[in-house]
Design brief:
It is a single chain. This protein is α/β, with parallel strands linked by helices. The chain is built from eleven helices and 14 strands. The strands form three sheets. Strands 4, 5, 8, 9, 10, 11, 12, 13 and 14 form a nine-stranded mixed β-sheet that branches. A three-stranded mixed β-sheet has the order 1-2-3. It has a two-stranded antiparallel ribbon with strand order 6-7. It is globular, with a radius of gyration of 21 Å. It starts with a helix and ends in an 11-residue tail after the last helix. It binds adenosine-5'-diphosphate (ADP).
C-alpha cells in the first residue's frame, strides 16, 4: 500500500490551476484515503473547465503511478478522483457564525483549559458560544465544566447541549463510556465526531469552539472537511520540545487550508506567593515560534494553581473574577476576539506582495 505521506509528496508537485499553488499546501485535497487496491481523492475544484479537470486527473494518476513504483508495488491502485466545489456545498451548521478549532501538538499542554477560557471570555463579551469536546479519545470537558452530575439529554437523534456558565457544551464523555472512546480509530472516530458536531441542537451561535484531540490525527481532517472553519488556535508550552510538536500541528492546519488565528503560550511562568516569578519551563518560546512562522501571538497564561483547581472542580468561570488571573484571561480573550473578528471579515489572509 502506498504510504499517505509519500503520495502527498508527489501530489505537492502538482499545481492547482485555480490558485496557482500546489494542491497540498493550498489545502485543495479535501479527502485522501489509500488502501491496497485504490486511492480515493476528493479535490476542491470549483471550475467547470473540463480540460483543466482532465489535465489534473492525468497528473494525479501519474503521481499515483510514481508513488506506487517508488514503493515497489506491482499493481497500481485504481484512482477514484472526485471534484467537489466546497464553496457551493451547503454549510451544515448555517446558524453558527464562526467555527474555531483549538489544537496542540501534544497532550497535557493545557489545550482544553485554554479552549474553555477562550470560550468563557467570548461568552463574557455577550456572545452566544458553544464548545464541542472534540477530544474524543480523552474528553475532559465533563470534569472541567462540572457536567458529571447533569444528565445528558437526547431528543430522538438530536443531542441537546449542556448549558453552563453561558456556554452550550457537547462532549462524547457523557454519551459513551470513556474507556470505549479511547480505542476508537479512523472511521469510528470520524463518525462519532461527525455526529457530535452535526447532530447537536446548537441553535444560533456566534462562535463554536472545538477542542480537538492533541496531535495530527483523523479528527482535525474530519472537522476541516465537515465545517467551514474560521481558523485555528494552537496551544503550546514554552519549551523547545513543545514548540516542535506545535509546529507540526500548525503545518497540519495549514495543509488543510485552515488559517491560524494565533498561538497561545500556556504555563508561562509561576508567580510565588511572595511575588517572585519563576519561569519553570522558560518563557517566550511560543511567541518566538509564532514570530518565526509569521503567525499572530495571542498571549500567555501563567501556571496558576487556581486554573488547575477550579478546572478540576468544574468551575473555571470563577477564575475570570480572580485578581491574579482576571487580567491575563481578559487580555488573552481580547486578543483572541480581535483575531476572530478579523477572520470573520476575511482580513486574516496575508497579503502577498509581489515586487
Ligand atoms: P490538554 O487539553 O492539553 O491535555 P488540559 O487543559 O487538560 O490539557 O490540562 C492538563 C492539566 O493541567 C489539567 O489538570 C489543567 O487543570 C492543568 N493546567 C492547564 N493549564 C494550566 C495552567 N496554566 N496553570 C495550572 N494548571 C494548568
Amino acid at each position: 500500500m502506498i504510504p499517505l505521506e509519500e503520495l502527498r509528496q508527489f501530489l505537492s508537485t502538482i499545481t492547482d490551476p485555480e490558485s496557482g499553488r500546489d494542491l497540498v499546501s493550498h489545502g485543495a485535497i479535501r479527502d485522501l484515503k489509500i488502501d491496497e487496491d485504490s486511492v480515493y481523492i476528493e479535490l476542491d475544484f470549483a471550475s467547470k473547465d473540463a480540460e483543466a479537470k482532465e489535465l489534473l486527473r492525468s497528473q494525479i494518476a501519474a503521481a499515483v503511478r510514481k508513488a506506487a513504483a517508488n514503493h515497489g508495488l506491482r499493481r497500481i491502485p485504481e484512482l477514484d478522483l472526485n471534484f467537489v466545489d466546497v464553496e457551493a456545498t451547503p454549510n451544515p451548521l448555517p446558524m453558527v457564525r464562526s467555527v474555531i478549532a483549538v489544537g496542540a501538538g501534544k497532550g497535557g499542554v493545557g489545550k482544553s483549559t485554554v479552549s474553555v477560557h477562550l470560550a468563557l471570555a467570548l461568552a463574557r463579551m455577550g456572545r452566544k458560544v458553544g464548545i464541542l469536546d472534540g477530544d474524543i479519545y480523552g474528553p475532559s470537558l465533563p470534569t472541567m465544566l462540572g457536567l458529571q452530575e447533569i444528565p445528558p439529554k437526547i431528543d430522538g437523534n438530536t443531542i441537546i447541549p449542556f448549558e453552563k456558565d453561558g456556554l452550550k457544551i457537547v462532549s462524547i464523555g457523557r454519551l459513551v463510556e470513556p474507556e470505549k472512546a479511547l480505542v476508537w480509530r479512523g472511521p469510528m472516530a470520524h463518525g462519532a465526531f461527525r455526529q457530535l458536531a452535526l447532530q447537536s441542537d446548537w441553535g444560533e451561535l456566534d462562535h463554536l469552539i472545538v477542542d480537538l484531540p492533541p496531535g495530527t490525527g483523523d479528527v482535525p481532517l474530519t472537522l476541516a472537511q465537515l465545517l467551514p472553519l474560521t481558523g485555528a488556535v494552537v496551544v503550546c508550552t514554552p519549551q523547545k520540545v513543545a514548540q516542535d510538536d506545535a509546529r507540526r500541528a500548525i503545518r497540519m492546519f495549514q495543509q488543510l487550508g485552515v488559517s491560524i488565528l494565533g498561538v497561545v503560550e500556556n504555563m508561562a511562568g509561576f508567580t510565588a506567593p511572595d511575588g517572585t516569578t519563576i519561569d519553570l519551563f522558560g518563557r517566550g518560546g511560543a511567541e518566538d515560534m509564532a514570530a518565526s512562522m509569521s503567525l499572530p501571538f495571542l498571549g500567555r497564561l501563567p501556571i496558576h494553581p487556581e486554573l488547575a483547581a477550579r478546572g478540576d472542580a468544574g468551575d473555571p468561570a470563577s477564575c475570570h473574577e480572580l485578581e491574579a488571573l482576571g487580567d491575563a484571561l481578559k487580555t488573552l480573550g481580547d486578543a483572541f476576539d480581535h483575531r476572530v473578528r478579523m477572520a470573520e471579515r476575511g482580513e486574516d489572509r496575508p497579503t502577498l506582495v509581489i515586487r
